[in-house]
Amino acid sequence: MGFFHGESVMELCVQLKVCEGCGCLWYRSQTQGTVYCKECEVKLKDFPSPETRKRRGRPSRKTLAKVWAVAESVGGAE
């Protein structure tokens, strides 16, 4: 909070975001991590957030390396 020409001034840093639920534009605080607007947040509150959902697609190379290590230890990868 500060003063500018005798008036109190408060600064708030925001980001312009696109809601991943409905596609509308909305402002979110830089410290906030949500991806939905307030209306979609209410509608989707019972669903898992995008950050907690399982990732789809191929497993990472690290996982494949562990599989090969186990296969070699049992003698299956020659």
Count of alpha/pi helices? 2
Mind telling me the C-alpha Rg? 23 Å
**Major beta sheet summary:** 2 strands, antiparallel
Q: Mean pLDDT, as a whole number?
A: 78
Q: Which shape, going by the Cα principal axes?
A: elongated
Query: What portion of residues is helical?
Result: 25-40%
What are the low-pLDDT stretches, counting only 5+ consecutive residues below 50?
Answer: none
Helix- and strand-based class? Answer: alpha+beta
Portion in strands: 15-25%
Strand order of the largest sheet: 1-2
Question: How do the helices and strands follow one another from N- to C-terminus?
Answer: EEEEHH
Number of strands: 4
Characterization of the model:
This protein has two helices and four strands, in the order E-E-E-E-H-H. It is an alpha+beta fold and 78 residues long. The protein has a domain at 1-52. Strands 1-2 form a two-stranded antiparallel ribbon. The model has no long low-confidence stretch (mean pLDDT 78).
Summarize the structure.
By secondary structure, the protein is of the alpha+beta class. It has helices at 38-43, 61-74; strands at residues 2-4, 7-9, 14-18, 25-29. Strands 1-2 form a two-stranded antiparallel ribbon. Strands 3-4 form a two-stranded antiparallel ribbon.
